[in-house]
């Protein structure tokens, strides 16, 4: 080929590239678009299986949509018209029937249920999957334990279509714990063939392949780029989803996610920042849905093991010094439920999260500081840089207000990767932090954050026998359905926590989602991930 | 050939050093991957289980021996944050970065080199001032800013450019993996729709990179042309009555190319690994953002793999440039 010919052909190709695509391609694309959902988020999964080592939160979303559980929750409409899961009502998913006995629960499986590869779902699959969740270790096993599901022996195959789960002890959280993401049902025949001696539960295979009976299956996954799902047309777990295909793209830049939504190129942008939410709500081009995150709160936490915060007067002084409303406006643009300014620190009902009786009252704070006899405090306020957009303004305001009552603070920004290990050390004196529990019960929150087991989330290292008695009392009362005793204990531990105030609640944040106007059916779930099954595109 | 082989031998100690340093550095950094990956509701016991699975409970020399052994078998380890083998990840992400960087660099050269030559030839003229403005603007605008600005104008406001969601829009089909360069792969398989789609995705990020790299290339071309044009052999050539074109391009530019090529090499390797911000803005699945994300999650294997790959690339690039020197200027000998 001569040089001149070559140049000619190259220009030809370049010109071809500039010509718009012929109409036939465009219409095929339009069809694909109407049956496909395009979701954009900041991050993508690192593992498609929640049982995997270190599966991140987006990974939970893949697990939720690709695997079925025996039971799930009903949906309810909230007063503001948005949809939410119903904490108190369960519905069968893989099971067609659930009968709860005194010390066991029995499930009958749907006979038509099939895995993605066409094999029928049997009781043996259920047993194998539940065995897996209590045996793999790490997060799934801990989560199962929260519902007193500990031993393989608790899961009994009665016949091909019937499974019985024996209770280790009476625990109200056992049934709800069977409806979280962890106890999904896996294709045991397939996974046994992929298992090896080193990897008896085939975690390597499920890391990048879905082997469930759920409404969707992953057909392509490029880590950090996209996940593509296709509908499982033999799904019997519920109403057949409308969308045949879901494409989930990772778009790290917040501004671009917003641009994509405003230009109409993406259907759903999940987990919006408060700033974007408040601005996009005003613009009104999109549907913006905000739901309070159940059992979750941002709080200022004080380490009660080290001076000066071992002194309860200092802790109360801090609680009166915080500029709550300013904090909520600066960090959340007002998009949160206040957890301050209640009638009193002694609560009289079991609604959770509850408001404390604290307000911004500098005179009171100064008086309490004087009373405590502590002065010349020099300390640090720490936060997770991974949640810096929310925590940093809070930390700055905390620093400023504590300065006024004679507590000097330096701000310590902890990189996201180190936050957990810093928390585990329990050496940070003062921190801004967030906690939320999947199971939306106050005793669950307190079990993690206030009890004497001193779990990683009990960052203040608050250990108090009276508190433990109240938490245990509430758990025991809930297990046997003693409402009166339950209320007494729950009101007791909330009031005690607010009076002793090792952690100062600030606000309950919202989970914000933006959708195009032709999208409906979005449901808020306790796991704070997107459920594609209910979504409808007009 | 022999000289190249000799050069390669000198590379070995460098690589050994890189392996040791990256291994130690990732271990010394604060942050405990076991705690990070134990996830919410971790107990000391579950953290210990994960530490054991990750092999982090073994002594350092033991971990290092395992690491070197794996490397020798071409195994870079597994990334915890994406859950894939590092080697696969790097081999799928490197072409994405390379395609973008090469196109960006190509755009920059096409604009910067002629601009630099003109600026040198017509010193103090309008074009010289233009060259100065372009260079200053290019280098002083941060890449993420230029990137966001381009997205805002060409995508959000005008709608000329496709959505900045990575290498291809969500509904286009990915070309079969031959070279990993979408432009080449789609052409080879005759899939012109994909070619068009990936080219249109490439234009904005490539332009962003080009704007940034204009400055060093223009300035270097100009400076080196100025030095050459004032030398005696150019005066001789002009005195001999050669036309301007021959004097400037054949004699002047060829002699001015050495520093320009060196700069190009540096700009290229810098852009390849360091354009994290551009990758973030355009959701580009490149190698830089992969390494940074891994670092933020104390995910050792990808960081080590990344540094090692970049070191090898850098060495290869330098070798290539050295060889180019020989082609451009026969007086240059590799042994020197």
Backbone CA Rg of chain A: 26 Å
What does the main sheet of chain B amount to?
none
Greatest chain-chain interface? A-B, 59 and 58 residues
Q: Ends of chain B: how far apart?
A: 15 Å
DSSP summary, beta strand count of chain A = 21
- Helix coverage percent of residues of chain A? 25-40%
Report on this structure.
The complex is a heterodimer of chains A (about 550) and B (about 325). Chain A contains 18 helices and 21 strands. Chain A is globular, with a radius of gyration of 26 Å. Mean pLDDT of chain A is about 90; it is low at about 5-25. Chain A starts with a helix and ends with a strand. In chain A, the strands form four sheets. In chain A, strands 1, 8, 9, 10, 11, 12, 13, 14, 15, 16, 17 and 18 form a twelve-stranded mixed β-sheet that branches. A four-stranded antiparallel β-sheet of chain A has the order 4-5-7-6, with helices on one face. A three-stranded mixed β-sheet of chain A has the order 2-3-20, with no helix packed on it. With about 550 residues, chain A is α+β, with helices and mostly antiparallel strands. Chain A has helices at about 5-20, 25-35, 55-65, 125-135, 140-145, 175, 190-195, 205-210, 255-260, 275-285, 310-320, 325-330, 360-370, 390-405, 415-425, 440-450, 465-480, 485-500, and strands spanning about 35-40, 70-75, 85-90, 95-100, 105-110, 155-160, 160-165, 215-220, 225-230, 245-250, 270, 285-290, 295-300, 335-340, 375-385, 405-415, 430-435, 505-515, 520, 525, 535. Helix content of chain A is about 35%, strand content about 25%. Chain B is mostly helical. Chain B is about 75% helix and about 0% strand. Chain B has helices at about 1-30, 35-40, 45-55, 60-70, 85-120, 125-140, 145-155, 180-190, 190-230, 230-240, 245-275, 275-280, 285-295, 300-330. The two termini of chain B are about 15 Å apart. The mean pLDDT of chain B is about 80. At the A-B interface, α1, α2, β1, α5 and β10 of A face α2, α3, α7, α9 and α13 of B.
């Amino acid at each position: 080929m001569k040089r001149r010919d070559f140049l000619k052909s190259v220009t030809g190709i370049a010109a071809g590239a500039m010509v718009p695509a012929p109409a036939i391609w465009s219409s095929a694309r339009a069809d694909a678009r109407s049956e496909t959902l395009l979701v954009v988020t900041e991050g993508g999964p690192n593992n498609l299986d929640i049982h995997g080592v270190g599966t991140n939160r987006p990974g939970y979303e893949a697990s939720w949509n690709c695997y079925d559980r025996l039971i799930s929750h009903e949906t309810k409409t909230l007063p503001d018209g948005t949809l939410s899961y119903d904490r108190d009502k369960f519905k069968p998913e893989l099971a067609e029937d659930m009968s709860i006995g005194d010390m066991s629960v029995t499930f009958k499986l749907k006979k038509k249920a099939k895995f993605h590869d066409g094999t029928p779902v049997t009781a043996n699959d259920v047993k194998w999957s539940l065995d897996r969740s209590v045996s793999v270790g790490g997060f799934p096993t801990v989560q199962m334990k929260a519902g007193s599901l500990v031993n393989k022996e608790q899961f009994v195959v009665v016949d091909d279509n019937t499974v019985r789960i024996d209770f280790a002890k009476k625990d109200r959280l056992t049934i709800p714990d069977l409806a979280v993401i962890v106890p999904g049902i896996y294709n045991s025949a397939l996974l046994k063939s992929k298992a090896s001696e080193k990897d008896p539960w085939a975690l390597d295979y499920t890391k990048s392949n879905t082997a469930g009976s759920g409404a969707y299956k992953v057909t392509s996954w490029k880590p950090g780029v996209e996940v593509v799902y296709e509908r499982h047309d033999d799904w019997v777990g519920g109403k057949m989803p409308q969308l045949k295909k879901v494409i989930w793209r990772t778009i790290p830049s917040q501004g671009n996610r917003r641009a994509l939504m405003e230009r109409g190129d993406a259907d759903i942008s999940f987990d919006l920042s408060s700033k974007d939410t408040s601005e996009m709500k005003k613009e009104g081009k999109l549907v913006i849905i905000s739901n309070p995150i159940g059992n979750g709160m941002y709080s200022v936490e004080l380490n009660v093991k080290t001076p000066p915060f071992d002194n309860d007067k200092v802790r109360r002084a801090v609680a009166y010094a915080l500029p709550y409303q300013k904090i909520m406006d600066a960090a959340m643009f007002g998009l949160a439920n206040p957890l301050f300014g209640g009638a009193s620190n002694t609560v009289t009902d079991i609604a959770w999260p509850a408001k404390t009786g604290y307000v911004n009252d500098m005179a009171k704070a100064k008086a309490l500081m004087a009373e405590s006899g502590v002065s010349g405090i020099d300390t640090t306020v720490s936060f997770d840089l991974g949640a810096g957009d929310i925590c940093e303004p809070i930390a700055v305001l905390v620093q400023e207000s504590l300065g006024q009552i004679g507590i000097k603070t330096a701000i310590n920004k902890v990189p996201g990767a180190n936050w957990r290990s810093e928390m585990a050390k329990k050496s940070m004196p003062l921190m801004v932090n967030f906690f939320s529990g999947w199971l939306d019960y106050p005793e669950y929150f307190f079990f993690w954050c206030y009890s004497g087991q001193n779990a990683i989330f009990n960052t203040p290292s608050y250990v108090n026998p009276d508190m433990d008695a109240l938490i245990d009392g509430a758990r025991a009362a809930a297990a046997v359905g003693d409402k009166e005793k339950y209320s007494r204990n729950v009101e007791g531990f909330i009031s005690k926590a607010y009076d002793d105030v090792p952690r100062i609640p600030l606000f309950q944040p919202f989970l914000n989602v933006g959708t195009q106007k032709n999208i409906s059916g979005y449901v808020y779930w306790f796991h704070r991930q997107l459920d594609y099954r209910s979504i409808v595109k007009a | 050939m022999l000289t190249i082989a000799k050069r390669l031998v000198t590379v070995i100690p460098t690589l050994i050093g890189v392996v040791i340093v990256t291994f130690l550095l990732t271990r010394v950094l604060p942050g405990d991957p076991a705690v990070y990956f134990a996830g919410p509701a971790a107990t000391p016991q579950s953290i210990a289980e994960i530490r054991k699975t990750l092999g982090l409970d073994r002594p350092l020399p033991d971990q290092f021996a395992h690491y070197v052994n794996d490397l020798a078998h071409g195994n870079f380890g597994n990334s915890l944050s994406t859950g894939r083998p590092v080697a696969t990840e790097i081999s799928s992400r490197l072409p994405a970065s390379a395609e973008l960087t090469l196109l960006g660099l190509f755009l920059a050269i096409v604009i910067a080199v002629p601009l630099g030559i003109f600026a040198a030839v017509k010193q103090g003229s309008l074009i010289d001032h233009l060259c100065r403005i372009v260079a200053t603007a290019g280098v002083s605008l941060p890449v993420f800013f230029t990137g966001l600005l381009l997205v805002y104008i060409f995508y959000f406001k005008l709608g000329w450019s496709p959505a900045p969601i990575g290498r291809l829009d969500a509904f286009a089909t990915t070309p079969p993996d031959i070279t990993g360069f979408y432009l080449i792969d789609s052409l080879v398989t005759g899939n012109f729709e994909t070619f068009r789609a990936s080219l249109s995705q490439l234009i904005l990020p490539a332009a962003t990179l080009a704007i940034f790299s204009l400055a060093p290339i223009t300035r270097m071309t100009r400076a080196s042309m100025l030095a050459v044009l004032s030398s005696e052999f150019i005066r001789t050539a002009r005195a001999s009555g050669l036309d301007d074109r021959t004097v400037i391009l054949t004699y002047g530019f060829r002699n001015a190319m050495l520093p320009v090529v060196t700069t190009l090499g540096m700009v290229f390797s810098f852009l390849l690994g360091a354009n994290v911000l551009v990758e973030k803005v355009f959701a580009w699945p490149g190698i830089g953002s992969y390494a940074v994300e891994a670092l933020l999650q104390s995910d050792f294997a990808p960081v080590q793999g990344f540094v090692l790959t970049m070191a090898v690339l850098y060495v290869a690039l330098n070798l290539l440039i050295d060889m180019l020197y020989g082609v451009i200027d026969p007086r240059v000998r590799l042994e020197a």
